[in-house]
Design a protein that fits this description.
By secondary structure, the chain is α/β, with parallel strands linked by helices. 29% of the residues lie in helices and 18% in strands. It contains six helices and seven strands; from the N terminus they run E-E-H-E-H-H-E-E-H-E-E-H-H. It starts with a strand and ends in a 23-residue tail after the last helix.
Length: 181
């Protein structure tokens, strides 16, 4: 079973379940995850999704053993599964919370970053190896602007760039300002 789906009170926990391969994504796993997301949305009692990984890592990206010896036509077919999955997560009508432990690399990092809320353990690390060699990830994740009403400062900090912080009004006399450090 490449994913585990748990129906809990008001939400679904979907766990990537290939810990022996650091939950590296396969075509089968991507299809199972897409089906689990569709099932969660169809269930009117499900108000949110929690996505996480089993074992010591969230997701090491695409399982590259799938593409060993593949023809160019096969590569296109294999890679075609990841971009729609990212788009599906980004457009779901319910929030997706991602809990990252350990490594989130390549398509795994893109999967995590596509979610509405990302909670990272101290052990979490995010790797975009494609950027180091001038390529674009096959899953084609792109940062999106914050949803209406969201804090743009907090939003951009999650993807690694921070706009100039806004100046806060002075503290009122009824509430003394906290001591400065």
């Amino acid at each position: 079973m490449t994913i585990i789906v748990e129906k809990l009170a008001g939400y679904r926990r979907i766990t990537l379940n290939r810990p022996e391969r650091l939950n590296a994504l396969t075509v089968e796993m991507a299809a199972a995850l897409a089906a689990a997301l569709d099932d969660a949305v169809a269930d009117k009692t499900c108000r949110a999704i929690l996505l996480t990984g089993a074992g010591r890592g969230f997701c090491a990206g695409q399982d590259l053993t799938e593409i060993i010896g593949a023809s160019p036509a096969d590569l296109d077919r294999l890679l075609a599964h990841y971009h729609p999955l990212i788009l599906k997560i980004r457009t779901l009508p319910i929030p997706v919370v991602c809990a990252v432990n350990g490594v989130a690399a390549g398509a795994g990092a893109n999967l995590a970053l596509a979610c509405d809320i990302l909670v990272a353990a101290r052990s979490a690390s995010f790797v975009q190896a494609f950027a180091r060699i001038g390529l674009v990830s096959p899953s084609r994740w792109r940062p999106r602007p914050p949803p209406n009403g969201a804090s743009s400062g907090a939003w951009w900090k999650t993807i690694g760039c921070c706009p100039k912080p806004k100046r806060l009004p002075p503290a009122s006399p009824a509430r003394p300002a906290p001591p400065s450090r």
